[in-house]
Amino acid sequence: MGAVQTCFLFVLVGLLCVESKYIKYDTSSVIVPGKINVHLVAHTHDDVGWLKTVDQYYVGSNNSIQGACVQNVLDSIVPALLADKNRKFIYVEQAFFQRWWRDQSEEVQNVVKQLVSSGQLELINGGMCMHDEAAPHYIDMIDQTTLGHQFIKEEFNVTPRIGWQIDPFGHSAVQAYLLGAEVGFDSFFFGRIDYQDRAKRKGDKSLEVVWRGSKSLGSSAQIFAGAFPQNYEPPINLYYEVNDDSPILQDNPSLFDYNVGERVKEFVSAAMDQANITRTNHVMWTMGTDFKYQYAHTWYKQMDKFIHYVNQDGRVNALYSTPSIYTDAKYATNESWPLKTDDFFPYADIVKCLLDWIFYE
Ligand SMILES: *[C@@H]1O[C@H](CO)[C@@H](O)[C@H](O)[C@H]1NC(C)=O
Ligand SMILES: *[C@@H]1O[C@H](CO)[C@@H](O)[C@H](O)[C@H]1NC(C)=O
Ligand SMILES: *[C@@H]1O[C@H](CO)[C@@H](O)[C@H](O)[C@H]1NC(C)=O
């Protein structure tokens, strides 16, 4: 045999030795009362105009400014959800969703209607955008919310249950009672509060509260509200967009870098850290961030594996969830919550303070 043939044989034997074994990942977990439940909430945060215009964001042009294409997100979510009925996704910004909806065939629209009615795809917040809560007049907040909700009601015959103002800089009591409780939301979640307030709330487990925003309406217009422990991002090392560098969960023992034990350990420890600052045995992880899920399979493939192996390990229980499922789970515990009145204003961010200090002092 010549060198070429020998080499070829080695490659062939090498390929045959990498056993490929089909694994059916068990993603069917539901809430387990006696354990820490990690609610994995798959989401994207799509600013309706920020570094690019709303049109550029939708079609994915001018990607040198920011690599962001919202129609890719919505296009890729549909097959990813159809591939496993346990997977879930939330979508927020109606300015993008309605644009995409108008571009779809009747067949796709019917599939999406089924995903919404089965609860796999949940439309939350439901306004055209995630409005700022400090500068706009409340009439405009009502109008832009109404416009989005009307469409959702007409097309899907559902009403969004959850307020999801994860990126506005600080939060107003008006948002809590008028654009939250009075809209009919069951809960309201957000990412940005003053960094000192957040630190204190982590210490005394008061990130989640009952928020009574109106003095005159009192408890008749209160709402369950939660600030996230960090931002609206996943825990460290759990980012799975195509170019993200979080370590993948490599579960084929015949390949290099098998790491199931290590990655499960990291997952469990992040869950316990968050449980330590949270009332009840339910914690929510926001699995996504700005303009993510442009290729949704990369996220779901990893989350499928985590759910499978973390639950096999058994120290905590991981599940595909939504903020509605999380809210119902919190409610079912009968926990009593700290009371919050007035605003989450003024807002200061520690990162920004540091940058100001470095560049302007
Ligand atoms: C966006 O892309 C278009 C087409 O390539 C180009 O003409 C325009 O200058 C770009 N805009 C910005 C702000 O870079
Ligand atoms: C849990 O919280 C307590 C008090 O807030 C803190 O002292 C402790 O280090 C935390 N433990 C873990 C594992 O995060
Ligand atoms: C919560 O309270 C309801 C009504 O009193 C009761 O049926 C239920 O068992 C309680 N749940 C827990 C987890 O204590």
Topology:
Layout: H1 3-17, E1 37-42, H2 54-59, H3 70-82, E2 89-91, H4 94-102, H5 106-117, E3 121-123, H6 138-156, E4 162-165, H7 173-181, E5 187-190, H8 195-203, E6 208-212, E7 222-227, H9 260-275, E8 282-287, H10 297-313, E9 317-320, H11 323-332, E10 339-340, H12 350-360
Helix pairs in contact: 9-10
The structure holds 2-acetamido-2-deoxy-beta-D-glucopyranose (3 copies).
Domain Glycoside hydrolase family 38 N-terminal: 37-348
Protein name: ALPHA-MANNOSIDASE
InterPro entries: Glyco_hydro/deAcase_b/a-brl, Glyco_hydro_38_cen_sf, Glyco_hydro_38_N, Glyco_hydro_38_N_sf, Glycosyl_Hydrlase_38
- Classification by helices and strands: alpha/beta
Poorly predicted runs:
none
| Quaternary structure type | single chain
Order of helices and strands: HEHHEHHEHEHEHEEHEHEHEH
Q: Tally the helices: what do you get?
A: 12
**Beta fraction:** 5-15%
Keywords: Signal
Protein name: ALPHA-MANNOSIDASE
Pfam family, one: Glyco_hydro_38N
Organism: Salix purpurea
